[in-house]
Amino acid sequence: DFSKRIEARQTDEVGNLAASFNTLASSLEAVDQKRREFLQNVSHELRTPLSYMKGYTEAILDGVARDREASLKYVSIIHNETERLQRLVHDLLDLAQLEGDSYPMKDEPLPFAQLISEVADRFELSAQQKAIQLVRNLYDEIIVNGDSDRLEQVVSNLLDNAIRYAPKGKPIRIILTEEGPFAVLMIQDFGPGISKEDLPKVVERFYRVDRARSRKEGGTGLGLAIVFQIVKKHYGELNIESEEGGGTTVVVKLPLFE
Ligand code: ADP
């Protein structure tokens, strides 16, 4: 129980010590509170797909699905929810590893433009389905230090979001430049943007501006939290510039290879 406080009115060393203890107790309490919130979120996120799966399985078993078509519809819902659970567990494990200190991260020189291009290629199909053009403007010479799988994951999560939240027909710009000792990757979309109030929270685990929309589009609410951890582990910076109605630009800065 971290809520206990030491009473101390003295202004001497004992008083100072008591004050330090109280500050420490408050921050432990805050950590504990975050941990509890996280567990609540995880439970909730796991429970939702599970209850769909249970409900539709029971409907089939009880003979509610009258014909083959109805059964197939139910099975396909169960399948979707299974996939959602799979993504969720995968992202959770990923995040737990990344947040730990012992996670092995490769440290190799990487041609960044090439890595970004390869990831963008994989998104061409889903972009085309929304008539979205991925406009690339990548400075070829840039080399960064890092873990290629993890940096691919950064680009992939960001493009995934941009395509998910951008409207049909609007382009997405992918820009790679150099700025002092940093490589700067910018992914810009012309989607709904993020309000001032929500902006500081979107990198938090499970925070979504529109839960229903994220769920419908298959999001886990962990994408940006994972991006943030990977960028941090590469001694980089993550900035999100966005305005409600004005699109979003995610900026990733990574130290250049030296
Ligand atoms: P999700 O799986 O829900 O996309 P993320 O952690 O990737 O989870 O993002 C958290 C939330 O931030 C999203 O639910 C969405 O509300 C908001 N968001 C992220 N990227 C964008 C974007 N490009 N445009 C608008 N909103 C975004």
Automatic annotation (TrEMBL):
Entry membrane topology: Multi-pass membrane protein
Recorded coiled-coil stretches: none
Catalyzed chemical reaction(s): ATP + protein L-histidine = ADP + protein N-phospho-L-histidine
This protein's GO CC annotations: plasma membrane
A molecular function (GO) term: phosphorelay sensor kinase activity
Top-rank taxon: Bacteria
Histidine kinase domain ranges (all copies): 41-258
Class of this enzyme: transferase
Subcellular location: Cell membrane
This enzyme's EC code(s): 2.7.13.3
Record carries keyword Nucleotide-binding: yes
HAMP domain boundaries: 1-33
Keywords annotated in UniProt: ATP-binding, Cell membrane, Kinase, Membrane, Nucleotide-binding, Phosphoprotein, Transferase, Transmembrane, Transmembrane helix, Two-component regulatory system
Name of this chain's protein: histidine kinase
Organism: Neobacillus bataviensis LMG 21833
